[in-house]
Design goal:
Shape: elongated
Distance between the termini: 21 Å
Number of helices: 9
Structural class: alpha/beta
Helix content: 25-40%
Order of helices and strands: HEEEHEEHEEEEEHEEHEHEHHEH
Mean pLDDT: 88
Strand content: 15-25%
């Protein structure tokens, strides 16, 4: 729901009637994962995606009917052969969608997301009932269970950028685009400013170890260290390694990275600890400008978070359903 959060909130504030379509089941080479959303207003506006384009015209029509009738419905899409191209999924997959008019539970879910709280949105695929459980949702991924579709509403993953250097500017924009909450940390006040980092959720002018020690950092989060100075790098790395954060990266050459690892090893950090550090940071995309470097860092963060192969899909061996793009 987070992917359409801003548009849904704006449309409801304008008094629009809205339907929300949710991918509740997939088989084969489906173009969008379970939990993907698309919203449609009675006035004809659209946001989000449930198929990367191949069935969204049909979903738009069904959404208008749902708004008019005031009750939800389950839709199925797929193809058996090339003849069905125009009416199904060109990539050969099969998906089930549930299209629902916006209910009170959806409105409350928006409030939960805005507040950064946890909850569980449950939709009955038979009756269309939508309820929100705000106490102890207790799991991580969308799933279908006994004709109820359950969607966790979780705070966004966080990226902590240590070092307000030039590369950090495009990186913080990319992180926001990818749905991360962004904190920029730097002890140098002249670098860490709102003018340089307008999209940041937080700008913290402190030494990195002090700032990280006061943050709640989860496994889905990322700490990206761009200071390239041992007096900042090492305190930041020590603090990051003390957390369960899923991604730790530090900018610098292979020589600089090796020197950092030797220093940390001498302090007693284990080989397992040091293996968590990505350095030199990022995927090598070939470009050397700030934007290309930031994109390479963001790509590595995403690959580590989701267990991606970080290889070209055209050359990687073996088909995988999630490779499809519609």
């Amino acid at each position: 729901m987070r992917e359409v959060q801003a548009e849904l909130a704006a449309w409801l504030a304008e008094g629009e009637q809205v339907a929300i379509a949710t991918v509740v089941e997939t088989w084969g080479s489906s173009p969008r994962p379970v939990g993907s959303h698309m919203i449609v207003s009675a006035s004809g506006k659209m946001a989000g995606s449930v198929s990367n384009g191949c069935i969204e015209g049909d979903v738009f029509v069904a959404s208008q009917e749902v708004i008019s009738q005031g009750r939800g419905r389950l839709l199925e899409f797929g193809v058996a052969d090339d003849v069905a191209f125009g009416a199904g999924l060109a990539c050969g997959g099969h998906i089930e969608l549930f299209v629902s008019p916006i209910e009170a539970a959806h409105v409350r879910a928006l409030e939960v997301l805005t507040a950064g709280q946890r909850a569980l949105l449950r939709t009955n695929l038979d009756s269309g009932e939508v309820v929100l459980a705000e106490q102890d949702p207790g799991f991580e991924l969308p799933r279908s269970l006994d004709r109820w579709f359950e969607e966790p509403l979780l705070p966004p993953a966080q990226m902590v950028i240590v070092g307000a250097i030039h590369i950090a500017i495009p990186l913080h924009h990319l992180a926001k685009l990818m749905g991360y909450g962004v904190s920029v940390v730097d002890a140098r006040a002249q670098f860490a400013t709102a003018e340089r980092f307008p999209a940041a959720d937080r700008i913290v002018v402190r030494w990195p170890d002090e700032a990280l020690a006061e943050m709640s950092i989860a496994r889905s989060d990322a700490v990206v260290i761009l200071t390239h100075d041992p007096k900042f790098d090492l305190p930041a790395l020590r603090s990051a390694l003390a957390t369960q954060v899923g991604y730790i990266g530090a900018i610098g050459s292979r020589k600089t990275s090796a020197n950092r690892l030797r220093a940390l090893k001498a302090e007693g950090f284990s080989s397992g600890d040091l293996a968590r550090i990505h350095g030199p940071i990022g995927l090598d995309l070939g470009g050397r400008d700030a934007e290309s470097t930031a994109l390479g860092i963001m790509a590595e963060v995403i690959a580590v978070r989701y267990g991606g192969r970080a290889k070209s899909l055209s050359s990687a061996p073996g088909p995988r359903s999630e490779d499809a793009v519609g």
